[in-house]
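Q: what sequence does this backbone want?
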């Protein structure tokens, strides 16, 4: 999680490609991190994004955005809510 006032560094695409190519060819991630002044985990994350673009790591946290939901998603949510309401009603009737 980001700290208050934390600054994020944007890296040039050409520089990213150069670093990742060196990393793929076998240069140590720790050596590259020291040479370019980049955290090792940043280099590993770039490599993972290149290896698995379908993951899109940055967007995989939390619930899906409302604009990304389909009609089927809404139907599924509605069915879950109906079942939950029925469950709650049954619990109340037991008391």
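A:
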């Amino acid at each position: 999680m980001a700290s208050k006032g934390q600054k994020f560094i944007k890296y040039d695409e050409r520089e990213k490609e150069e670093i990742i190519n060196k990393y793929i060819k076998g240069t140590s991630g720790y050596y590259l991190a020291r040479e370019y002044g980049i955290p090792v985990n940043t280099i590993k994350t770039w490599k993972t994004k290149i290896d698995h673009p379908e993951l899109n790591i940055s967007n995989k946290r939390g619930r899906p955005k409302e604009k990304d939901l389909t009609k089927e998603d809404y139907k599924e949510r509605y069915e879950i809510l109906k079942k939950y309401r029925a469950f709650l009603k049954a619990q109340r009737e037991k008391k």
